[in-house]
Batch of 2 targets.
Target 1
Amino acid sequence: MKSFRKELWFEIPSRRGFVNITSQVQECLRESGIKEGMCLVNAMHITASVFINDDESGLHHDYETWLEKLAPHEPVSSYWHNRTGEDNADAHMKRQVMGREVVVAVTEGRLDFGPWEQIFYGEFDGRRKKRVLVKIIGE
Amino acid sequence: MKSFRKELWFEIPSRRGFVNITSQVQECLRESGIKEGMCLVNAMHITASVFINDDESGLHHDYETWLEKLAPHEPVSSYWHNRTGEDNADAHMKRQVMGREVVVAVTEGRLDFGPWEQIFYGEFDGRRKKRVLVKIIGE
Amino acid sequence: MKSFRKELWFEIPSRRGFVNITSQVQECLRESGIKEGMCLVNAMHITASVFINDDESGLHHDYETWLEKLAPHEPVSSYWHNRTGEDNADAHMKRQVMGREVVVAVTEGRLDFGPWEQIFYGEFDGRRKKRVLVKIIGE
């Protein structure tokens, strides 16, 4: 069994944002030389997500609006977590809805995707450097 | 390391629905001959889910009602994604709540489940053919 | 390829609660002797979660409040599932938001975590014995 590990770094200039990281994960897979196996991609931070969905800007706007409705940033003081001096409690909620990680099948040396599947980094508390882990195991 | 791959096809006659696919995944596991490892089951479409929960029709009714409350289909025009000509933005939200994939342990040739765990395909934008990927790795 | 399996048992004295299980999973990893691979940790029950987030009591209070708002326990009769004699339909919803499982990379014999990542058992229908499965594959 082979294994491969790489960290991808991001610094989103705003509090929230989505970045398509599919080509970076594909590059990891090429580097790994693995043809059959599984590829784990996870946020290493607990106020960020990795998820698979569509690369369509209207949809990303809708996610932003919807997540803000499910777990509003304001009023900051409504969250006990923010009494620690943080203002990112809502980001910990949003990340649970969107998920921490995806596991993607690796088949014949490629990410085994349906027609519209793309991998995104979802940032909910940005303006600082944060990491995503890519781990691939197989043969 | 062995690996196995199979696509399962579904065509749900209504917009939304849940289908128990546990026996189909078990059949994949038998075909694979894998005794120890991990089994990934994921929706290949971004308006559908694969999740594990209870096979109880009342609960599925509750999921339907609850998801419709969290991310209503109507008004269709409230979602920017639907300006592309789609009417399925809500399906992209519902899928994030229910999840894209499950990873199940494979132990002694069986899906290593608790007493009530069953695998479901969750459709949120049906009335067309869509796929689920089963990928199993191990020995 | 090596594989390792262990069940962790919990009995939460209240209906809902969060337990940090990181050290128990690390102990499983040590026992397994696996240095490179993947570690699956999943709830074996469908009214409980395994998730990764911060070990901060204010945040856990916020999760409790937030989940109760998204999927209230009362009125119990509002859920069809509860007509079966159960009163835990809300727990099946809360578990979907928080997730069934996490997959963690194993690198150089350790859980390959970012700075604040901790694994939690999330109970939404406690006061009875329930299990978490730890399955590790690799070399």
Target 2
Amino acid sequence: MITEITAQELNTESFISGKVMEIKETVGDGTAINALSGGVDSSTVTMLGHRALGSRLRTVFIQNGLMREGEAEQVVGFFRELGVTVEVIDARKEFFAALKGVTDPEEKREAVTQTFYKNVFGRIVKQSNAKYLLQGTILTDVDETVAGIKRQHNVFEQLGIDPQQVFGYRIIEPLIELRKDGVRKVGKALGLSAELFERIPFPGPALAARVIGEVTPERIETVRKTTVIVEKLLKDTGAFQYMAILHEDRVTGMRDGKRDFGLQIEVRCWDSIDARTATPTRLPFETLEKLSHKIINDVPGVVSVTYNIATKPPSTIEAI
Amino acid sequence: MITEITAQELNTESFISGKVMEIKETVGDGTAINALSGGVDSSTVTMLGHRALGSRLRTVFIQNGLMREGEAEQVVGFFRELGVTVEVIDARKEFFAALKGVTDPEEKREAVTQTFYKNVFGRIVKQSNAKYLLQGTILTDVDETVAGIKRQHNVFEQLGIDPQQVFGYRIIEPLIELRKDGVRKVGKALGLSAELFERIPFPGPALAARVIGEVTPERIETVRKTTVIVEKLLKDTGAFQYMAILHEDRVTGMRDGKRDFGLQIEVRCWDSIDARTATPTRLPFETLEKLSHKIINDVPGVVSVTYNIATKPPSTIEAI
């Protein structure tokens, strides 16, 4: 039912002017709202929306406490330079309260999704006058949800849930015919800086998807610190995506001659074109050893580091 | 209190004749018993004991259900060729019953140790007339217990527990001044085949030490199948030790287009001289990929494989 536009056949200029026109026509003289995560998809949608609606699009960035180091400040700064004002909403307490005691990955994802939509964003939308919600859904999201691999919080429509009924607004999804590589081309054409639009993909539940087991402020801080190291050391590899995962399993370690039953971090670094299939990047052992040493030295409690060597399929990009 | 004999200064012939004489003098015209695991230490002790006592040493191999594929048959066969009869005791039910519901690594180790000594071996010793127990304790076992890193089941004496009081026998530890490399030299001089005495070290709790979380017959079977693959593919690497670890954490996978919340295997392969410090072997990526593919294809339920990249310290050789 959705016809794919491949990155190869994509004409960015006509795509952009077509989508800007569609958004203008759909919203009319109403107002729209969108949540910006800082990923390529939502950033591109933000730019399309602002080109179409200007200040009649309200863009919010929800600080859920699950973000990478300095992420909110960085994203807001990028858009400030492009003349787009982004409003930051601090909702950390609500998210951690919803995640307390939750260990099942599906329930965790559900807790983040529900807190995001029903509690935080739902409340903001209801309190605003906006009737239109812009979303960065791409074709891969639709595929994966249909296949039952992941619950995507942004595909209510495809799942047969009427978003107007659920949250009282209408969804506009201008990127739904594209895959990640197509979105990157559009983002670039819309003036997004290389730094921003080439950011590595980041999952909806953010760092909560990088923690196996219960998500607490302390465990998020552990994986956040590790993520800084992994992203710094792997940014020049040309890999499609790379990440640190905090395991729930504890392993034996030794510090100052004493037993230390500590944390294990798993590093994944993927080579891929479009995330549908992926293989582990053949990193030099010097890089793997540097990663391991830096993580063990700088992140309190970590005694062991692994590198994932499985392919997708049957593995997936994210661990949970 | 124990003076180390390094592998370099070790004169195997005079060491062996000295120990054979000591064992003869200690046991007198009594009988001795020992438990053979198939590792270098217990194999070497078995040969020393048989040289000293002949048929007055009774050697038992306790099948705890936690062994590697075909291990009991293989070990018994090796010794049969050397003219040594080894008696196999099937105690699988007792071990799995003791491990049921146990997830804490210390409690797991304790369950295996207690079942081995108190229940199974203790019973055999009490039912036999043997007053002397030969044990393959080496100097590294003593070091590590003193440092509190691992509970070693074979160092009661060093821990101040009188074994005569505990189990009603006296312990003879002929290898206690040696480290692993010294034991290998002695084993070789005693005629142990390269296949046997060069076997990679294996922990006391056997495959139970390779399972994070609860040990069940099914989970042991998973790690046993994986161990066959890992040992086959890594045996020619010249590495000090290599192993497969089944994690308790589950990760997302995808099979036949459907979500499959599956198992993760961690592979460790160590370069080391004496196990006191160790670094991950720089395996070629072709080998890592072959490992991962074979494990995922041949071992039911596994969707993800990692390779450990941490050094000891702060990591340890075994995960639990």
